[in-house]
Amino acid sequence: QVQLVESGGGLVQPGGSLRLSCAASGSISNIDRMGWYRQAPGARLELVATITPEGTTVYSDSVKGRFTISKDNAKNTVYLQMNSLKPEDTAVYYCAVRVQAGSPYDYWGQGTQVTVSS
Predict the structure, then answer these.
(1) pLDDT in tens, 85-102
(2) 76 confidence band (pLDDT: 50, 70, 90)
(3) Dmax over Cα atoms in the chain, in whole Å?
C-alpha cells in the first residue's frame, strides 16, 4: 500500500518561506513523476511542480523562480521549498504520484494548509 504523508504547512507572512515535506511509504513501480498540487477554497486543483525519477523538474508559471521541488531518495521524501510567498499562494497543498504519463495522478497525500497573510 502506498501512503503519502505531508507536513510543513502553516501560516506565513507575504515574502516568507515554507518547506513542505511528503514522506512516502509502500512500494510503487513505473513512476512517471511526482508532483505538488494546490487547491484554494472554491477553486480547481492546480499543478504546481513536478519531478521525475531522474530529477527533471517542471514548474507552473505562477511559481517559477520562487518554488523548488526536490526529493531525498534515502528518506523517501519529496519536498517543496516555497520562497517569496504571496497571498495568492494560499491553498491546501497536496503531493501526488503518477505512474503513467498522461494519466491522472494515482496516489495522493492528505494535504497541508498553507496560508499567506499579514
Answers:
(1) 999 999 999 999 999 999
(2) confident
(3) 43
User: Are the CB atoms for 78 and 51 separated by under 8 Å?
Assistant: yes
Q: How far is CA 34 from the centre of its chain?
A: 8
Give Cβ neighbours of residue 77 (< 8 Å, ≥ 6 apart): 21, 22, 23, 24, 71
The pLDDT value given to residue 71: 94
As a residue count, the chain comes to 118
C-alpha cell of residue 79: 519536498
Q: Which three cell numbers stand for residue 16?
A: 516568507
Phi and psi angles of residue 29, each rounded to the nearest 5 degrees, phi first: -115, 155
Q: What is the pLDDT of residue 60?
A: 98
Amino acid at 30: N
- The DSSP secondary structure of 2-52, one letter per residue, reads -EEEEE--EEE-TT--EEEEEEEES---S--EEEEEEE-TTS--EEEEEE-
